[in-house]
Design a protein that fits this description.
heterodimer; A: 346 residues; alpha/beta; Rossmann fold; six-stranded parallel β-sheet; six-stranded mixed β-sheet; 45% helix; elongated; B: mainly alpha; ABC transporter involved in vitamin B12 uptake, BtuC; two-stranded antiparallel ribbon; globular
């Protein structure tokens, strides 16, 4: 096999260029796959921040990144409530990369912080670094997202939303509407990013609750990828293939907002001709709810700072804390949205 | 010429026939509030941004380059316009929208000039040169919007995607106009031939008196400008700028459209009509998944199968096999197999583009 001598310099050049291109595109594709699930999920919630003094606690916090408004609000909440609670915060932004996060956690261990908190970028691969933290005697609190480690002694607690519960709340509201007992109700569903935890759980919780009433039927369900553009395009197609849609259930506000544009373009009135339920309660969603274009929003609250600080103090003081803490979340109808809107921060 | 037409044409036809058979009312078009309304219109409207990006990409690829930064430029254009409108004293005024659009397009041109500078002056490999902006550009867009989704409520800006000319969506009109202009410029003048010459052999064309550097620079600027316009369409469509997600991976869609259209990634001959069909095929595929109600967990596999089938049919090897077999049989040509656009089978663009 003497292929080197046979090819002319020129063809080698070309072939190499092509291989380079192929490798780059492949890498991009892989990156795309890896990134798909990691978005727009997340949960969280406010509690009253204890303003107790005492010795200063040092907390190392590693954030996922700044990929969405939800995440920005989450970061701000952690920073502000740390200050309020008198906890010294070592903040590190992982920019969506697990290796950055592992590096940050190792740094925290070296600095011998009192407690480590982080929102894992991905679910797996945390055991070694969490072992190191355990050996150093530093408690770890997971926020917003879980890890899939079998050894639950590696972290003190997981603070985050219960996405199944969010789906159930959405279904419950629909179940209670008078139209649901009157006759058949055709529901379309805009799912989040395929395979992501919030998308799977919000679908599951919703389906479980509406199964109680045979009138309620999901006639179409597609992914809008948690984006407004996605929500709009999918809703456009739904409107054409299903002439009688009564209810839209969107896994986040943004998809719902995109769908509203599609519904309006079809000459229907969102909120009246088609009832809309969404999850998240970001500011734009709340505005649409107050305007009567959305009917009901289940909150997925990013403001988990106060709860986190509370847990941190307890764990440093050696108190027992539950292994799973669900963030405090509420729901909004149109009247509640009008009330909450002026003070909505994110 | 006839074969060139047939080639990128048929996957689209097959997809449309599939819809005709399985989704009643797919071709129904009516006028809703003075605007055409129907699945076919959706395909044209939603396909317009990628079609534009693919047009710019075609010329870049014809010069043996590639532009990975177009997705990021989409995000930057949308972010700049929306941020400008939101920050202006009167966010609903037409003036604010025009300023925002002007700044966004100006910035797109500047970014294209940067790409062109790296490639044509500094001689950096196009894939690396544009990769810089692909990664950094999205960060820039996020910086502009502060990581938030900026929602605007400006009638003029909204008209870019929501407006219509004689009931035809403005996005479709704009895309069609740009296609017509580029087709005219490249086919009615020597420009197209010059671009191909640079792509086939830059050194020889330079020695023959073609100003390769200026030409390469120009195609990157044009590609970025197309991406900028696409970015305006995408953000106007939702009246908001989503710096994190707008245009994400659209550069790959644009490259795929070019490849389906029969332009070789090795540069040289290009087909504008082919690219148009490629872009429409991708959008029709997306819409088909939705109208047929293919479950989301299967839809990527469905898309992959279609794309692989299309690329296999365009592969010179497959063509040779089919042609070889046909020679033994009576000449009943099935309507669909393709000839390679270049005389020699340089490569198979299949593996690189099935993203």
């Amino acid at each position: 096999m003497r292929w080197t001598t046979e090819s002319t310099p020129r063809s080698t050049f070309r072939r190499r260029g092509v291989r380079l291109a192929a490798a780059a595109v492949l890498a991009l594709t892989l990156a795309a796959c890896g990134n798909g699930g990691a978005d727009a999920g997340g949960g969280s919630a406010p509690a009253d921040a204890g303003d107790s003094g005492g010795e200063s606690i040092v907390m190392g916090f590693s954030q996922v990144g700044a990929e969405s408004g939800w995440r920005t609000a989450n970061t701000k909440s952690v920073q502000e409530s740390a200050e309020e609670a008198g906890i010294e915060l070592q903040f590190s932004d992982a920019q969506q990369k697990q290796e950055n996060q592992i590096k940050a956690i190792r740094n925290f261990i070296q600095q011998q912080v009192d407690v480590i908190a982080f929102s894992p970028v991905v679910e797996s691969g945390w055991d070694p670094v969490l072992q190191e933290a355990k050996r150093a005697g530093i408690p770890v609190i997971l926020t917003d997202r879980a890890v899939d480690s079998a050894d639950t002694s590696l972290y003190a607690t997981f603070l985050g939303s219960d996405f199944i519960e969010e789906g159930k709340k959405a279904g419950q509201w629909l179940l209670e509407q008078p139209e649901s007992s009157a006759g058949p109700v055709n529901i379309v569903e805009l799912q989040g990013t395929t395979g992501s935890a919030p998308a799977i759980d919000r679908q599951e919780g919703f389906a479980e609750v509406i199964a109680a009433n045979p009138n309620l039927k999901v006639v179409a369900s597609q992914t809008g990828d948690f984006t407004r553009s996605g929500g709009k395009q999918v809703m456009e197609a739904f409107l054409k293939s299903n002439p009688d849609i009564d209810v839209l259930y969107a896994h986040n506000d943004d998809m719902g907002l995109g769908a509203i544009e599609a519904i309006e373009a079809a000459g229907k009135v969102p909120g009246q001709d088609i009832k809309i339920i969404t999850v998240d309660a970001v500011k734009d969603g709340m505005q649409a709810l107050a305007d009567g274009k959305i009917n009901y929003i289940v909150e997925c609250n990013p403001l988990l700072g106060p709860q986190l600080m509370d847990l941190a103090k307890k764990v440093v003081a050696g108190e027992q804390i539950p292994p799973r803490v669900v963030t405090e979340e509420t729901t909004f109808d149109q009247a509640a949205a009008k009330e909450a809107l002026p003070t909505r921060q994110y | 010429m006839r074969e060139l037409w047939r080639k990128p044409f048929w996957p689209l036809v097959v997809l449309l026939l599939l819809n005709l058979a399985l989704a009643p009312g797919f071709f129904a078009v009516r006028v809703q509030d003075g605007r055409l309304y129907g699945s076919v219109i959706d395909i044209l409207h939603n396909g317009a941004p990628v079609a534009l990006m693919a047009l710019g990409m075609t010329l870049v690829i014809a010069t043996r380059g590639i532009d990975l930064s177009v997705g990021a430029i989409v995000a930057i254009a949308g972010a700049t316009t929306c941020a400008w409108i939101a920050a202006s004293p009167d966010p609903t005024s037409p003036g604010a929208a025009l300023e925002g659009i002007g700044i966004a397009l100006g910035l797109s041109v500047a970014l294209g000039a940067w790409n062109g500078f790296l490639v044509s002056v500094l001689g950096i490999q196009p894939i690396i040169a544009t990769l810089v902006l692909m990664t950094a550009g999205r960060g820039l867009a996020q910086l502009i919007t502060d990581g938030q989704i900026v929602t605007v409520n400006n009638p003029l800006f909204s008209d870019i995607a929501g407006g219509e000319l004689l009931a035809v969506p403005l996005t479709v009109v704009v895309a069609a106009a740009v296609y017509a202009l580029v087709a005219l410029a490249t086919r009615a003048t020597a420009l197209g031939t010059l671009v191909e010459a640079v792509g086939i052999n830059p050194a020889a064309s330079r020695l023959a008196g073609v100003r390769a550097r200026v030409l390469i620079w120009t195609v990157y600027v044009f590609s970025a400008l197309c991406a900028g316009v696409a970015g305006l369409m995408i953000s106007s469509n939702i009246n908001a700028a989503d710096a994190n997600r707008a245009g994400l991976w659209l550069e790959l869609d644009a490259i795929l459209a070019v490849v389906i259209g029969g332009t070789s990634l090795a540069g040289g001959r290009f087909s504008i009509v082919g690219t148009l069909f490629g872009a429409l095929t991708i959008q029709t595929l997306n819409t088909t998944v939705l109208t047929l109600g293919i479950p989301p967990d299967v839809s990527l596999v469905f898309k992959a199968v279609v794309v692989i089938a299309v690329c296999l049919m365009q592969s010179p090897r497959t063509y040779e096999l089919l042609a070889g077999r046909r020679r033994k049989r009576p000449p009943a040509a099935p309507p669909g197999e393709a000839t390679p656009p270049e005389p020699r089978p340089v490569e198979r663009p299949v593996e690189r583009s099935t993203s």
